Each structure stands twice: as C-alpha cells, then as structure tokens.
Amino acid sequence: MDRRAALKWMATAAASAALLDASLLGAQTPPVAAKGYGTDPDLLKTYTPGELWPLTFTSAQRTTVAALCDVIIPADAKGPSASSVNVPDFIDEWVSAPYPGHDADRRTIVNGLGWLEAESQTRFQNSFTNLVTRQRNALCDDICYLPNAKPEHRTAARFFQRFRDLTASGYYSTPEGMRDIGYTGNVALEKYEGPTPEALKHLGLA
Amino acid sequence: MPLITSSKTQPSYDVIVVGSGAAGGQTAYTCTMQGAKVLMLEAGRNYDPVKETPMFQSNGQAPLRGSNTSDKPFGFYDATIDGGWQVPGEPYSSASSDPARQFWWWRARMLGGRTNHWGRISLRNGPYDFKPHSRDGLGFDWPIAYADVAPYYDKVEMLIGVYGDNHGLENTPDSPAGCLQPPPAMRAGEQYARAKGKKLGLPIIPIHRAVLSQRQDPDVLPKKLHPNNPRAQRILADAMRQRQACFWATPCGRGCSIKANYQSTTVHLPPALATGDLDIVSNAMAREVTTDASGKATGVIYVDKTTGLEHTVKARVVVLAASSAESVRIMLNSKSARFPNGLANSSGLVGKYIMDTVGASLGGQIPALENLPVHNEDGAGGAHTYVPWWLYKEQVAGKLGFARGYHIEFESGRKMPGVGVTAGLDAFTNGSYGKQFKADARRYYGSFVGFAGRGEMIPNDDSFCDLDPTLKDKWGIPVLRFHWKWSEHETRQAAHMQKTFAELIEAMGGKVRTPPQADGAKAIEPGGKIIHEVGGTIMGADATKSVTNQWCQTWDVKNLFVTDGGPFCSNADKNPTLTIMALAWRASDYLLDELKKGNL
Predict the structure, then answer these.
(1) Average of per-residue pLDDT across B7-18
(2) CB count, 10 Å around CB of A182?
(3) Model confidence at A2: pLDDT above 90
(4) Mind listing the pLDDT tens digit for each residue in B369-382?
(5) What residues contact residue B118 under an 8 Å CB cut-off, 6+ apart?
C-alpha cells in the first residue's frame, strides 16, 4: 500500500468507524430542516431529485450507492442497470426527504454504507466499489437475507433489505424498469379486452 | 353566473348550497336545471380537472416516485388538494386517548371535494338496507323504502354514468334497462378468483363504478332525465358531448381530464354553470346559518379565506352539503337565543349516530399468477369486480354472531410499479440479488392479491361528534370533537372478513402474506378510515327522534336542508356516494316544489 492509498484507507476507515459508533450509540443523523412539497403541489411538472430538498450523500457515498445498486440490479437482456437510470439519485432524494419515516431510512442507509465500506476494507483491503465480483458477492451473501444472517450481520442485513427495496422502487418506476418487469399499461386503448388468450391459458381458464 | 369572488355575490338567491361535492353538486345541478338561482360556497380553492389532472404522468416523474407522504396521504398524484386526515390550521379533536376509540376525519379543500379522488364504487342500497331495524331489531328504519329511492338511483346512474350489470341477487338491486353501461372484462386475478372461489359460494361479479365504458347518448338520456324541460335537455346534451369514454389508462383517483369518470367538477357543475343560474364562491369557509325572528334560515355567514373577512349571503333556502360532519359543525355553531343548542337541534340529535364503514383487509400470493404472460391490466383505473354480501340466510338464522353484512373488494393486477413494488419479496426469493433478483421480480410481479371487506356499522350511542369546548380553527371557528366506539357487531364482522379472505386465498392455491387476524378488534380499521362517514343529522318519521324528515328537511327549520350523508340513519355496506346523490336529487325536487308552492 503506498502512502496516498494508506491515507485514503485510514480516512475511510475512520469515517466508517465514526458512523458505526454513531449507529451503535443510537445517535441520529441531523434532522432535515427542509420543507416538503406542500398540500397543493404542481402535479403536471417532472421533478428532479434535489430540487425540492437538499440531498444527503457525499460523493464517496454516492459512488458506493451506485456500485451496490448495480450489484442488486445489473444490466441484463431485458433491461439496463439501476445506476444507468439514475436510481442513486432517487435513493438520495428518498433518504433526504423531510417526511415522517424517511429519517429512519436515512440512518439505516448512511450507516449501512459506512459498514459496507469498513467491511470491504477489513476483508479485502479495498473500497467496495473496487471489489471484484467474487468479493462483492461474498460480502452480499452474508447480508442479503435477514433470516439467514449471522447475529453480527443482522444490522447490515436490515440495511441490505431496505436498500434492495429502494433500488427496486427506483428502478421499476422508470420507463426502462417498467418495460423490464412487464408493465405495458399507461397507454390509451380503444377497448379493454381483459387478459390475453395466452394469460388465460396460463391460468387454465382458456 | 360563474365562479365569482365575495364582492360579486347577488343580494339574494333562491338557494345557498354549502359544499360542492356529491351532495352539493347534485343539489346545485337539480336546482339550477329547473331555473332556481343558486349560490354555492366551497371552503377550498377552485379546481379544474381538465387542466390540472396528471393523466399519464408516471411515478418516475413525481417526487419520491409518487409515494404517499403527510402532504399527500394517498400519494403524490391523488387528486386531493389541501386535504387528508389532517388539514393545516383546521384541526379536530378526539374525546378519548384510547387508540381503539379514535375517529379519523378525511377532508378535501377543493371544488368538487372528495368526488375528485373517490373510488367511484356506486352500489345501490337494497330493500333491506332501508328497513334494518324491522329485520333484526337494531339501529333505525329509514322513513322511506327502496321503492321511494329507486327512481332516483335510475336517474343518477344515467346522469353520472355507471358501469356494471345485473345478477338478481338478494338485496343487491338490479338496475332497469338503459341505466347501466357495460362493465369491463375482469382482470386475470379476478377471473381466477371467480373460478376458484365458486366452491366457497362467493358470487364474484362485476362491480358498479361511475366510469363511462362508452360515451353517453346525448339524444336519449337528457330527455329521460328532464322531461318537459327543453332548456335542461339542451344543456345536459351539450355537457354529455364534452365527456369521453374511458381510454383504460390512468388511475381514477387522480381525477379525469377527459371527464370519463364522475366527479362533481366534470359532471354536475359544468351543466349547472351552463344554466347561468349558478354562482360559486370558492375559499368560502361557512361558519353559521343565520335565522330571523320567526326561526327561518335567512342565509349563511362565511369567512373568505383569501382575505380573512366575514361575509353574509342571503337566500330563501339553505342547503348544507358540506359532508356529514362538517354540516353538523355548521349547525352546532349556529347558536342563537332561539336555538341555544345549535340550529335544528330540538331533538338533541345533531351530531349523534355518526357511522363509518367496517374495513379489514388481507393479502396473499398466488403461484398461478406467477410468470403470467405480459399484458396490460390497467383497465378502468379501479376495481372491476366485487363480491356482494352473500350470507343473508345464515345471518337471519343467527349463525354468524354479527348482524349486518359486508362486500369484498379486490386488489390485483399488473399495476404501474412504484415504491414497494418488490417489498416482502425476499421471503419468496431467499433474498436474491443481481440477475436472479431481476428474474424473480418479473416472476412475482402481479402475483399478489388483496381483499378488502367493506361492511355495515350499526349506529350506536357512543359514536357521535360535538363541539370541542375550547379548540378553534385558524378562522376562530369552534371545531368538532369525535367520540367513537365499535360494537361487537363490527369487530366480529371484521374477524369474519379475515377468515373469508384467508379461505379465498387458499382456494386460489395461494398463501396469506400475514396470518388472518382472529381478533376482530385488531383486524378492524380505525373509525373514519374508510371515509364513508355518514349520520349526525339522521332522518326519521318522528321529530323528537330525528333531525330531518324523509326529504332531508330539518324538522325545526323548514327552509334548511341537509343533503350530504348526514341524514343516513343506517350505513349499509354499499358505499354511500350513489345514495347521497339519489337522496340529494329527491330532496331538491321536493325543495323546489315547496318553494313554488310558497311553503318555504
């Protein structure tokens, strides 16, 4: 490890440790002071994360978020990866929102990202973003399913569960994600025909 | 006469209508179509669904992917403006801190009120529903029978446009030919439930909803609805030509810019305004009804929310259509030497016997619906299917342990994905991620179903509202305090719902997502949560035991009417809006007749 890399590692590990301590002590991330969109927002305009309330992630956290999003939703034959359709922006918007419940998600996600970085350094002496697939999977396998997680991984497993839900929420609500999951509505039709013959056959109702 | 400001009101009107939703819209429509001069007061802002409805906006365009927040409790794209369970500056209170005795009050502050976002489910009360006390000795009989209301159900269905069909089932009235529009085809999950639910004896049939599955016939319907009234026929025909049929996209809860579903702002108010006989003042928060020395109503005092100033407007007749609880509030706040306990309250019953609908729900996952071949299931932007109450005979035989019925609403289909689209999926996938997760998401999408029970609550002495002794809203107007208690008839019914839903999910080869709740007190939703609150100014045949007569006319003040859900003296499992409109039309016909005769 050269000096620059060592310094970077120490800084990251220190930051992660601080976050871990904060989570262990039950300390809270600072509350969001921003206002919401109110009870009569413009419903016709398209909104961009960051325009209604300030975002949370540092650039380092953002990099980790993008990497983990793509571990959960990579590109395949049916659709692109989560980061390529701006899912990290949505997650940042979500954890930064000044509404009840979002505070808890912000703590879960920010602390979880800290754990992920620290754990990557501990196990592989590298940032999560720089891990090879085998290393990432080894880490994720420990935390991807809460009922199977070891006691020391349960907090991280809760983080992963929430992160996966948010990644999927962000991804499948994009045009690309809607196509991927098989949502073909939101188009005007002359007539509503009900299930296709293939769908009825699948159900044994044809 | 149009949307006006406070300074432009006329010196006097024939009728003042407080509220612009289902009741206010219908009242103003019926009165203006027959030439009465009407002033409508709406506490919220003006609202134009043609310009403001987010048609085709997808969740990805909204903040937080359109999910619900405390500012928009039914999601970002829900039509509700300045409303919800809490309205800033306009509180209400609860008499009890017991969680089981809370009442949730949903309000909307916008022209058209809650009709802009409602579920559009439009079921007729049946013959039993008007005479419940005669059947089981509980609650109250209405002073009217199904036959009195049936002609008005016919008219409302033809006016607003309702899809559905007839099955000749007990206490589930058929509509005469020409009233209903064809129902849309059932979705895959609904068809599967129908096939598999047969062995449970559940009649799974098309629901009735106020959505145009085809365009209305402007040459036929106006003549049926307004015989011998060429002006009304012409105006209504023009209004019907402005409405398009459903194009099978965009959830109805957003409202509808093409006017394919019913909301007061697209169906009642445009023709009423086209008569030239309707003035509407929005941002007008009604405070009290004024009276003269003889005890007759003379008009309404309201706060103009844009200036904070009070205004007094006058009319020969005052109609409260502000929502059942809001109308109660106005009456209780209309105190005078002659009416020290509030207006039209000699019976002491104003605010008493408020009811909501019993609600409970259960979800399941159905393996047969996994990997369903991709197709569009948007449909009519709401329910296509339901189960009307089917256990009348068992109930009458005393086998169920609760006195009244419920219907079942369905939640299924390949809906537009939003937040939570894969929530809970890890229980099926052992926490998959990566390409496997994407495959799992496709496999399970659309395989989840939900069933919601909507049941009848029996009015009781412990469920009522009165004025809070100290709390006022930001306009200085005393606010309501709610008292609430479910009886065992409701909690046992909620437990029965849970059991039925679990059986239906199992009959479909599925698994419940949470265990069915055997304790009805835990299964039941809080009072008010279903947003079907009615009662508070119940109708009856005896002036000492009711607030209004069968014409929604208060016993004490003959030129004061209440046409919202307040006069309901029972709350059948049938969602109340269609009945509110039918009774409002009937009351308005009577009111106009009495006005003509000089009796008001």
Answers:
(1) 97
(2) 19
(3) no
(4) 999 999 999 999 99
(5) B253, B263, B531, B577
Q: How far apart are CA B326 and CA B332, in angstroms?
A: 10
Residues B185 and B384: their CA atoms lie apart, in Å, by 7
Full DSSP string of B175-219: PPTTSEEPPPPPPHHHHHHHHHHGGGT---EE--BSB-SS---TT
Q: B312 in helix, strand or coil?
A: strand
Of residues B64, B82, B377, nearest to A39 (C-beta): B82
Domain count along chain A: 1
Closest to B153 (Cα-Cα) out of B571, B568, B570, B584: B584
pLDDT top residue among B1 and B388: B388
Residues of A in Cβ contact (< 8 Å) with B192: 203, 205
**Dihedral over alpha carbons B224, B230, B231, B234 (to 10 degrees):** 60
Q: Per DSSP, what are the bridge partners of residue B385? A: B206
Contact assessment for residue B267 and residue B260, using Cβ atoms and an 8 Å cutoff: no
Nearest in space to B476 (alpha carbons), one of B19, B7, B91: B91
Q: Identify the sign of the CA torsion B265, B270, B275, B279.
A: positive
CA-wise closest residue to B17 among B594, B592, B569:
B592
Element containing residue B227 per DSSP (H, E) = none
d(CA B31, CA B278): 9
Question: By residue range, what is the domain housing residue A13?
Answer: 3-202
Tens-digit pLDDT profile for residues B472-492: 999 999 999 999 999 999 999
Question: With 90 as the cut, is the pLDDT of residue B283 above it?
Answer: yes
Residue B2 banded pLDDT, cuts 50, 70, 90: confident
What are phi and psi for residue B430, nearest 5 degrees? 55, 35
Cα–Cα distance for residue pair B555/B53, rounded to 1 Å: 41
Beta bridge partners of B408: B387, B453
Query: Is the separation of the CB atoms in B28 and B278 below 8 Å?
Result: yes
ipTM: 0.95
B258 touches A at CB < 8 Å: no
Interface of A with B in 51-110 (CB under 8 A): 52, 71-74, 76, 78-79, 90, 93-94, 97, 99-100
Q: What average pLDDT does chain B have?
A: 97
Cα-Cα-Cα-Cα dihedral sign, residues B215, B226, B297, B353: negative
List, in order, residues 6 or more apart from B376 with CB less than 8 Å away: A184, A185, A187, A189, B248, B414
Q: Which amino acid is at A182?
A: G
pLDDT above 50 (res A10): no
pLDDT of A34 reads 83
- Report how far residue B459's alpha carbon sits from residue B211's, in angstroms, rounded to the nearest whole number: 31
Q: What span, in angstroms and rounded, lies between the C-alpha atoms of B529 and B533?
A: 9
Question: What's the residue count for chain B?
Answer: 600
What are the b/e assignments for B468-499, b being 16+ CB within 10 Å? Answer: beeeebebebbbbbbbbbbbebbbbbbbbbbe
Residues in chain A with CB shorter than 8 Å from the CB of B420 are 165, 169
